[in-house]
Design a protein that fits this description.
There is one protein chain. By secondary structure, the protein is an alpha/beta fold. It has two domains: about 270 residues, Aldehyde Dehydrogenase, Chain A, domain 1 (3-Layer(aba) Sandwich), CATH 3.40.605; about 180 residues, 3-Layer(aba) Sandwich (Aldehyde Dehydrogenase, Chain A, domain 2), CATH 3.40.309.10. It is about 40% helix and about 20% strand. The chain is built from 16 helices and 24 strands. The strands form seven sheets. Strands 14-17-18-13-12-20-21 form a seven-stranded mixed beta sheet, with helices on both faces. A six-stranded mixed beta sheet has the order 9-8-7-10-11-23, sandwiched between helices. A three-stranded antiparallel beta sheet has the order 5-6-24. Helix 4 crosses helix 5.
């Protein structure tokens, strides 16, 4: 099927044609043009022209567009889910869950569009403010460059697009080149829902060209990016003075206290480590278990992981599909081999079949191994024995990343100790770090990023505070 780019309300052809492949069988599922420099320039100019239209649009109208978008996503859920499963390799059951979440994200944005406001401020709290009346409000920043990743090609686009529209901004969207089709379908839905021309523009191409043109353009007022720490650092170095939100990597830990329900923890960790082939920023990667339950948990975790069905993501029975491409399979295969040569033991998995890498559990690892120190972003998890809860917290915290962490315990004292000690953007108690509700603040500390997503929190970052001080006649 042929697709086009969206620029200034028109679906247009552009540069070289790119094929989008089914990640499991390699068949072409769609073709679309890549953006040239002049296409990106035209898209940014269109977003600039639409700035006033969106900024002046009443909140209730923005809300209506967002809620209509949510309704259309619900109507087309089956097609959207199958598109995700084919182009991203995500198991259909999890693709359906992503579509449900995207519908929720737009619904939340429709509600939040009507709640964006400032407040009064008592300027006469200081002598210099005597005789003045003050209030502040929020104004849209303007043109937003939204750069989204392959692993949630609909809902992570939604987390950039929905709050931008809710707060009265315009966008140039660059989805991941490997998974652009569902983003095209979302833009079609937004047009049908009544979004004005130029309010969203879609361009596709490599990060080194299309992405670079977007982030360095002085007409762009804000960048919102989800991807690797390396690219995030580069964006900060070249973007200039503009707002930047970065959602980057993690090496997600789980801490298991001896009082935890090991059967439940094992099942949750198996899903948390291996759904979407571990290609999630908050996938379970490092599991710290106290030694008195280490062997029991490892056996249960291995059994739960081996029960997962691996295969074609379009098969309703499948839990684990392929990785995004063969290069990523090559990378993780090398990392696992290096860990094995350094003493790690493979409890299950470790083998590949085409672009599929089987769920893999490692033990006897050390902090210097890449499977521990770096973000795996693959279906590989390691289990580590610790002497006590304090040691588990210390090792979980020993990372350059800090996105989310899971802690399993029934002891409230342990819960508050973990909350106090762990330097992460989110501490998830009695579930894995994969938990995310789409209205909660979501983002990381340390090398895991800057700013927060979650609709209301993203809207705050997509607006500027405008202070108004009125001198009163005396």
């Amino acid at each position: 099927m042929e697709y086009k780019l969206l620029i200034d309300g028109q679906w247009v052809n552009a540069g070289a044609i790119m094929e989008v492949k089914n990640k499991y069988n390699g068949q072409t599922v769609g073709v679309l043009p890549t953006a040239r420099r002049e296409d990106v320039d035209t898209a940014i100019a269109a977003a600039q022209r639409a700035r006033d239209v969106m900024a002046d649009m009443p909140a209730y109208k923005r809300a209506e567009i967002l809620l209509r978008t949510a309704a259309l996503i619900r109507e087309r859920a089956d097609d959207l889910a199958k598109t995700i499963a084919a182009e991203a390799g995500k198991a259909l059951k999890f693709a359906r869950a992503e579509v449900d979440r995207a519908q929720s994200t737009f619904t939340i944005a429709g509600e939040e569009a009507k709640r964006l406001h400032g407040e009064t401020i008592p300027l006469d709290a200081v002598p210099s403010g005597d005789g003045y009346f003050g209030f502040w409000t929020r104004r849209p920043v303007g043109v937003i460059a939204a750069i989204s990743p392959f692993n949630f090609p609909l809902n992570l686009v939604a987390h950039k697009v929905a709050p931008a529209i809710a707060s009265g901004n315009t966008l140039v969207l660059k989805p991941a080149s490997s998974t652009p089709l569902v983003a095209v379908k979302l833009c079609q839905i937004l047009q049908e829902a009544g979004l004005p021309p130029g309010a969203i523009n879609l361009v596709v191409g490599a990060g080194g060209t299309v992405g670079e043109w977007l982030v360095t353009d002085p007409r762009v007022d804000k960048i919102t990016f989800t991807g690797s720490p390396e690219v995030g650092r580069h964006i900060l170095s070249v973007a200039g003075i503009k707002k930047v939100t970065l959602e980057l990597g993690n090496a997600s830990p789980v801490v298991i206290a001896p009082d935890a329900d090991l059967d439940f923890v094992a099942r949750r960790c198996a899903v948390g480590a291996f759904y979407n082939s571990g290609q999630v920023c908050i996938s379970v990667q490092r599991i710290y278990s106290q030694k008195q339950v280490y062997e029991a948990f490892t056996e249960k975790f291995t059994t739960a992981s081996q029960a997962l069905v691996v295969g074609d993501p379009l098969d309703e029975r499948v839990d684990v599909g392929p990785m995004i491409d063969s290069r990523e399979v090559d990378r993780i295969e090398t990392w696992v081999k290096e860990a094995g040569e350094a003493g790690a033991q493979i409890r299950t998995g470790g083998q590949r079949e085409g672009t599929v890498f089987y769920p893999t559990i490692l033990t006897d690892v050390n902090p210097q191994m890449k499977v521990i120190s770096e973000e795996v972003f693959a279906p590989v998890a390691s289990v580590i024995s610790c002497d006590d809860f304090e040691e588990s917290l210390r090792q979980a915290n020993d990372s350059k990343f800090g996105l989310q962490v899971g802690v399993f315990t029934k002891d409230i004292d342990r819960v508050f100790k973990a909350v106090k000690r762990l330097n992460f953007g989110g501490v998830i108690v009695n579930d894995t770090p994969n938990f995310r509700a789409d209205h909660m603040p979501y983002g990381g500390n340390r090398q895991s990023g800057l700013g927060r997503e979650g609709v209301r929190f993203a809207m705050e970052d997509m607006t500027n505070i405008q202070m108004v001080a009125i001198r009163l006649n005396s």
